[in-house]
Design goal:
Blueprint (H helix, E strand, L loop, with lengths): L12 H18 L1 H13 L8 H5 L4 H26 L16 H25 L4 E3 L3 H38 L3 H14 L4 H6 L4 H18 L3 H17 E2 L11 E3 L7 H22 L4 H6 L4
Parallel strand pairs: 2-3
Antiparallel strand pairs: 1-3
Length: about 300
Amino acid sequence: MFVNQGVRIENEFWKYIVGSLAIISASFIGQLPLIGAIFYEVFKNKKPYPTTNQDLMHFFDSNVTLVLILIPSVFAIVGIYLVVKYLHKQTFMSVTTARPKVDWSRVAFSFGLWAVISVITTLISYYQNPANYEFQFDLIPFLGLLVIGTILIPIQTTVEEYVFRGYLMQGFANLSKNRWFPLLLTSLIFGLMHLANPEVSKMGNMIMVYYIGTGLFLGILTLMDDGMELALGFHGANNLIAALLVTSDWSAFQTNSIFKDIAEPEAGIDIILPVVVIYPLLLLIFSRKYQWTNWKEKLTGNTH
């Protein structure tokens, strides 16, 4: 099974700590272009140094900013590959799926399903509450966003999946020798990683239910399907469609999207609904399509 592929005697847990630090370091190296660009504008063009996320998001053109904040993901994916190959002596496929090769049909199905649902729910929200949205479509900047987003956002979401549903899922399984511990811990860490997002300070800690719940959903997908393909597709669609459709002054990505959400944000039913209703329905759809069985063993059983 997928999680067992990292459970080996030679994979002592200290290696995952070292590997995580190496991946973080690679990501930090990827931040140097952003840091360099900021200092160039500050010292060369006398622009005030951005001290808040809001300042940073408006420091450059939106598309330029998006490229600069996504570049670290390119470095991180290289870091993950090197750590897996040289520190853990594993193949990259072994932290991707238990199948002989990546099942791209699974990635495409998950991506397409969530993309369609995201578009439909966004349009319903717009037509129900048009005053909450500002139509800001501008063809040329949007096309730039489309190209940048299509290339770099899937890399960013793929990095997160490889770190949490691949690398750390196997790492914690190697430590605990079971499946429930890595499922819960990676979901918790995934949620807490989003604490720095501007949405949290704007909407309160209630939104952590959504982030942790999303991590749990993606972890269940990975364990039940014996691979990350469904999680990769879902996560890619979630971030890409959001970036293309709706932005706001308080979101992590501020883009040249079609709509801008101008309503005052609040954590309400829209935060809880995906976790308690939509995600279980998606699990039902996936389980029927891919004929999942033995849920208890796959989610809570031992790794041996």
